[in-house]
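Section handout 9: paired folding examples.
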Amino acid sequence: MSFRAFIAVDVRCGEELRKAIEALRGYGRPLKPVSSDIVHITLKFLGDTPAGRREALAGVAREVAGRCAPVEIRVQGLGSFPPGRPPQVIWAGCAAGEEAFAALGQDLDAALAVVGLAEAQRRPFTPHLTLGRVRGGRNLRELTEAIARSAGRELGAMRLERFLLVRSELRPEGPVYTALHEFGLHGEHLG
């Protein structure tokens, strides 16, 4: 038995972030905004995970959380993946706290890789909040221009005090996320 999993910080959407997500709905059906209830910053995507690894994953995550203090971040600006090509994923970036947050992501990635629970990430960790996914090619010029205009938009500040091991179930109406374990940040800053 296995489950689809990731480790993430859940984000409490403030008014500005909620408005940015809602504005994405104006670009047509091919763009699917995420629900403001499930906005998060993924620290490590684990994918299909054997159920027997759940406790080992939780143990490593708990150790990492104990080494990192809460992180103050400021969410600012919209962007898209992949860079330099038509947008497929719309995201909001971190303008403050990015170094400490990236250090947390890198520490978690390395700790999981050392004990063989996940492959090490090949790209540098870049904290971001996924706000929507593009499902087609309609209105892309207008969408791309709107993203460029919002590159410096302030979307709120928050204190990140915990992260979660999450089970993800993909359903036609959208993903359903279930927190399996919670890990409080109570150590020193890593970055």
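Moving on to protein 2 of 2.
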Amino acid sequence: MPKPSFAVPAIWQNALTILLLGSVVAGCSHPQMRVQTTTVKATHSPSNSMIEHGKVKTGSPYKVAGVWYYPLETGENYNRTGVASWYGAKFHGKKTANGERYDMHAMTAAHTTLPMPSRVRVTNLDNGRSIIVRVNDRGPFVKDRIIDLSRAAAEALGYLQQGTARVRVQTLDAKGIASAAPAQPHRRERLLNGDIYIQMAAFKSLKSAKELRWRLVHDYPSADISYTPNDALYRVRIGPLSSEQESQNIKTTLQRQGYANPMIVVQ
């Protein structure tokens, strides 16, 4: 069988993270990528889109190849399109991000931000085939790739040989009904499967966040403040941005302007 082109999945990351950070953070990544996590603990409750199977896990925010990923609090109403890849025998039997063992013959998948486990309908937009899989892993961390399917799932969707396919990913509610397409879908390019921001800083003080936003908003009108109750932080962000290239360009400009730590984040 020809080797498909796909992202290296999450089950390598446990060993990688132990070497790099001394802590375990599972997720799909290339072996050479450095993974960094925050100390913020995610305390999310299960949503209707999650299947009652195994332990529900969302995980803390984590960083791969310079990009921060923020696991979603809920998978409800998730409906995105992108490119699917797959992973197979090389990872069969190894641990996934939520602690299960990867079974290439099971209908499972890896996703960067959906809660685990979640049930999603994946539709091959090239041939119309549709399947339901369980998300129990993290990844893939490759531009435009939205989901990494098991070997069995890729075979069922008919893209095993070519390695990738254009797909739509929709979470299912408790009745098994897939999330409908947004009434006014975004016409922007997306990085992987989320909105792109540049995070400038995070503050305990709302006053400090407002002062930084005030300095930014003249040159960057989309600068705003996002509050997260879990860690009680006010994050100053620019965005959402139209593409990965735009975010890289703005980050470079900000660094030249003297801002030391602008970070590209996907949420």
